[in-house]
User: What shape does this take?
Amino acid sequence: MPIEFLNFRKNLIYSTTANLSTIIADLQEIESIDHLAELQQSKYAKRALYYFYGIIGCVVLGFILLFVIAKIPVFVFALFALFLAIIVLTVLTIYELVKRFKLGKLNILNYRYEVTQRIVQMLARDMDAGSEMEIKLSFKQTKNKENIVETIPHPTKRDWKIDKYQNEWLSLKGQLLDKTRFLLTANQVSKTQYGWKRGRSGKSKYKTKTNDVGLDLILTLHYPQRRYGAIKLLQSEVSKAVKLPNLSHPRNVKLTDKAVHLSVRMAPQVADNENEIYQTITMMFLSLYQVLNLAKVLSK
Assistant: This one.
């Protein structure tokens, strides 16, 4: 199913429920759209730069002609031609920059579709070839009004406020071969402090400061009772089984009668690192399945 280009350009969201081969093909198409946008932007930027160099050349030549005209008046026509050339080159420069700006929205965050493609391919190895997966992948920036979840007063600065942002840019839902249903989400978290600050001169300036908090990964596995029913006996072992990369740490591990939940926060310095995200998600699945496999043995 080809990407609806105009709809994707407007919303920057890929959302569907489809078989694995279709989703992988769609992600590859998104990658092609991004690469094409990057190439086109680079082409328009180079053209605009060449036209700008032309403007500078015309201006320099124009100054030279100003001195020559005093001795050779006929060069006034050349000066007029240079003036027209500057106007044309200025219009062309603006035109190329506008085209480059319009494509900026399609120059999306590479790591999001790259890591999503790797995750889908990893999960596909443990899913039925004909099974479907539900996916929602957003390329919107985190610092956006629609992502504000809370606004609170600053704890130490008077008349300052803090906006807290949460951007769930990935959601994957499907079923593995052992009938375990999974839900994986990636949620970018950040906060912005803003307010008026009085300087030494007595003048007040409006200040803003944005801090990336990190990336929250949440994995829920709804396991079949018959196969993994004995997992209830391993309540104390679930937390011990969780192994993660150095810059990721578990925030919550919860075991219920029907599911096991694992919430992990990645440090802000690796929150947009494709390899770190993929490695963390892989280790989350392996950690929970280590407990499920032990429960499977005990259930026998």
